[in-house]
Amino acid sequence: MFDVSLKNVLRLGYAGRTFKSGYRFQNYWDTPMATAFFCGETGAGLFILSMLLNFMPGIILGLLITGVGKTFFHLTHMGVPSKSWRAILRPDRSWISRGLWGIIFFVGFGSLHVLDQIFGVVPDQLAKPVYLLAIAGAMMVVVYQGFAMSHSTAISFWNTGLMPVSSMLYGFLAGSSLVMALNALGFDVADAGQFAMVITGQKILMVAVLMTVLSLLHNAKHGAKGAHQSYLLLTKDFLSKPFLIGVMGIGIIIPLAILLFAPVNFITTMTVTGTMLVGFYLYRILVFKAGVLDPILSPADIFKR
Amino acid sequence: MTSYGMVFDVKRCIGCNACTVACKQENSLPDGVFFTRTLSAESGSYPNVSRTYLPTICNHCEDAPCEKVCPSGATYTRDDGIVMVDAKKCIGCGSCAVACPYDMRTQIEETQVKGGLFGDGQLTPFEEQGYSRFECGTFTKCDFCSERVDAGKQPACVATCPTDARIFGDLDDPDSKVSRLIRDRMGRQPLPEKNTRPKVFYIE
Are A94 and B105 in contact (CB < 8 Å)? Predict the structure, then answer.
């Protein structure tokens, strides 16, 4: 499905890790990192929304998805997992470092908030700061991955302010979808007003995600040479099927159509959540797979007399 | 203040890759790991075809994106402008690799170090003495042969080049050979639009 094989690389004129000059794929951040990003955005989006709704099952699930899922996949990605703690050292310049601080605040204060809600362990005057710090940490987690990618001038496709926007919108969309799914599974959201607000928010977020992904493609099509190659990979070449069918069709168009035209019941809610999450996960993987580095030098351009 | 840099004379490069081999030997690089490569690129169409060789190496950028994104402080710049990696601090997150527009970062994988050059798990004496400098899982790159430079020598690739296509020297010294070549022959930096201010220049 995601065939970045030598055959495809040669067919497309990519240099890969050969001694040929040309476009190169980034392959340093791959599926484990994409899965970690997916877990981070989904968990943080669910957590923030659930905190605002005071929806305890969502708060706990959000903490677990990020605290366990994201951490696990980050550690599987790391070359030296035992030294991962060192990533906290440079919040002044590195988005990865800032993100780790966000995770610490999110999971630390979020867990404290849950314990306070169940056992009342936090003094009253500190309950509000703990609540706000947990949300601030989660907000950092939901956007920092987009900033980490957009900071890479090496990969033109990622080097856009739309990356953190897409991270945030996808995070909140996944969060609202999971709130709906938990509600359908019997974990009741507090009242009908909140329920209606989540449904409306889900529709708005779905349209916003669609607009953002289309804007990303437009930006790539008319952007730098490397970004244009990424656009071609996602829309015309060997990544086009999973992108157009998986990300756009299954992940956005189908759930949006169901949200707009079908009645809200158990089956439609679970279908929307399932398809949306599948599309989001594919999006995370494909954005990494489509990361292309510009040729180091193009002799045809630079040394042409 | 010294600021080391390199000039590649594309007209002189014959694509022999002696630099690549010298680098691998000097740094005891495992199978599949290269700090320098001489890329080839064909242009034109038959019968008017030409081939150009492009030596590539870490550009030791003045505004190094790999250093800016490193979350653990493993990547740093020496006073003489050489961008270094402290393997003891590197966590192998790959941020530097996706930030480098020149694709000059390489991860040292366990299979590369433990498998041996012959792939049978047996390390040759050369590998045994050389691989101890690597830490599996970390990212590494060219350091302009800093140990040789500190001893007053040229980097191995420069010392080996049979056509003097690689010239190494102090960019801050206006009378150095690299400064004169860049000035007289309009040295160009790779991917200047990335705003990394590379200290490697190409002349034709």
Answer: no
